[in-house]
Design brief:
The chain has 419 residues and is of the alpha/beta class. It folds into 2 domains: 135 residues, Aspartate Aminotransferase, domain 1; 261 residues, Type I PLP-dependent aspartate aminotransferase-like (Major domain) (Aspartate Aminotransferase, domain 2). A 7-stranded mixed β-sheet has the order 4-10-9-8-7-5-6, sandwiched between helices. Strand 11 and strand 12 form a beta hairpin. Helix 2 runs antiparallel to helix 10 and helix 12 packs across helix 14. The longest helix is centred in the first third of the chain and has 20 residues. It starts with 6 loop residues before the first helix and ends with a helix. This is Cysteine desulfurase. Pfam families: Aminotran_5. Its EC number is 2.8.1.7. InterPro entries: Aminotrans_V_dom (IPR000192), Aminotrans_V_PyrdxlP_BS (IPR020578), Cys_dSase_SufS (IPR010970), PyrdxlP-dep_Trfase (IPR015424), PyrdxlP-dep_Trfase_major (IPR015421), PyrdxlP-dep_Trfase_small (IPR015422).
Length: 419
């Protein structure tokens, strides 16, 4: 399989991929949709900063403080360039994508929000979809509960696509915000943004994308997408955990009330009131995840050097190979699209009569194959398909066809065990 990616060279950058598991089994890591492994280059950048340059940012008037602040803000520049942000001040660092989504949800219906776009109450509506991660469901449920607004959602077709047949009826003049996943963490489906955004603009609403699964695997350009908000997380982008990103249009960030109060997010403080710093610092209260942000900057450097177009080609080839191979296993049902049209490298499936937890345990114990099992923080989607859980294999730039072969051998063994 030729994709233009030197996978063997890339694999050498990830020390864990050479690990031997008990019994001499090689590690086969097919769980990057959960969290990606980290290249040595990212680890070294973080180690270097921690041991030689660390200080708090935006506060200390000494060499270490200046170096740390410069490295932290350089990371913001790198992330902005990676996602095509028109202005680096539109990039807000959070602790993860969940916090980024909650930050935006908090702005709506907040009593101190002066902009009418963020005023929300009974009669107003919030629109999500049935394929969302819990992080893009629960914050909007909480918002509806505290404001009296109504939560509505797109359904999902039997083939795992977003059902847009009732788009005009679902997104109306009552809609204030539409927040949907860009790429499903269960189905692998890449959702169409343009038709939804066109309707959102028609009714005067705002639109957010949860891009946690798309930013690591393809070129995402926020300016080209045209949405208002976008969130993703560092640990899926070969970066560290504890760091996430909210991108939002600058004028919206200026209109939004702060999410947390504390140091750094202020302009001036009196005993009876405070004024706030401009975005992005208005949303970065307290000591931020400094080293984690610098690690994220190193991670996007790593991916940029490889080239996201090459990553996309490699994952498409792997996904095509996997769908063909899994299709030959009796009793296996893929939950999601069966072709590569608008699809990423995440494949979730069931094996007839066998619980996914048993599948995952046997794959790990006998073949060293790491997959994820469960509802993947997307329980409503599993309920829609009438299943309690799935087994999920998710591929990344360091995976190979041989690892998919090992997965298939393992699944045949699982069937024999439960025969």
């Amino acid at each position: 399989m030729e994709t233009g990616l030197d996978v063997e060279r890339i694999r050498k950058d990830f020390p864990v991929l050479s690990r031997e598991l008990p019994g001499g089994r090689p590690l086969i890591y097919l769980d990057s949709g959960n969290s990606a492994q980290k290249p040595a280059q990212v680890v070294e950048v973080m180690r270097e900063h921690l041991t030689m340059h660390y200080s708090n940012v935006g506060r200390a008037m000494h060499v270490l403080g200046a170096e740390s602040t410069e490295a932290y803000e350089n990371a913001r520049d790198k992330v902005a360039a990676f996602i095509g942000a028109p202005d680096r001040d539109e990039v807000v660092f959070t602790k993860n994508a969940s916090e980024a989504l909650n930050l935006v949800a908090y702005a709506f219906g907040n009593p101190i929000a002066e902009d009418p776009r963020f005023r929300l109450g009974p009669g107003d509506e919030i629109v999500i979809s049935e394929m969302e991660h819990h992080s893009n469901i629960v914050p909007w449920q909480m918002l509806a509960q505290r404001t009296g607004a109504t939560l509505r959602w797109f359904s999902v077709t039997d083939s795992g696509r977003l059902d847009l047949s009732n788009l005009a009826e679902l997104v109306t003049e009552r809609t204030k915000i539409v927040s949907i996943v860009h790429q499903s963490n269960v189905l692998g489906t890449l959702n169409p943004v343009a038709p939804v955004l066109a309707r959102v603009r028609e009714v005067g609403a705002l639109m957010m994308l949860d891009a946690s699964q798309s930013v690591p695997h393809q070129k995402v350009d926020v300016a080209a997408l045209g949405v208002d908000f976008l969130a993703f997380t560092g640990h899926k982008v070969v970066g560290p955990s504890g760091i996430g990103v909210l991108w939002a249009r600058g004028e919206l960030l200026e209109a939004m009330p702060p999410f947390l109060g504390g140091g750094e997010m202020i302009e001036a403080v009196w005993m009876d009131h405070s004024t706030y710093a401009p975005a992005p610092h208005k949303f970065e209260a307290g000591t931020p995840p400094i080293v984690e942000a610098i690690g994220l900057g190193a991670a996007v450097d790593y991916l940029s050097e490889i080239g996201m177009d090459a990553v996309v080609r490699h994952e498409r080839e792997l996904t095509a190979y996997a769908l063909d191979a899994l299709g030959e296993i009796p009793g296996l049902r893929v939950i999601g699209p069966l072709d590569l049209t608008d699809r990423g490298g995440t494949v979730s499936f069931t094996l007839e009569g066998i619980h996914p937890h048993d599948v995952g345990q046997i794959l790990d114990d006998n073949f060293g194959v790491a997959v994820r099992v469960g509802h993947h923080c997307a329980r409503p989607l599993h309920l829609r398909f009438g299943i309690p859980a799935t087994t999920r294999a998710s591929f990344y730039l360091y995976n190979t066809p041989a690892e998919i072969d090992a997965l298939v051998r393992g699944l045949h063994h699982v069937r024999k065990v439960f025969a």
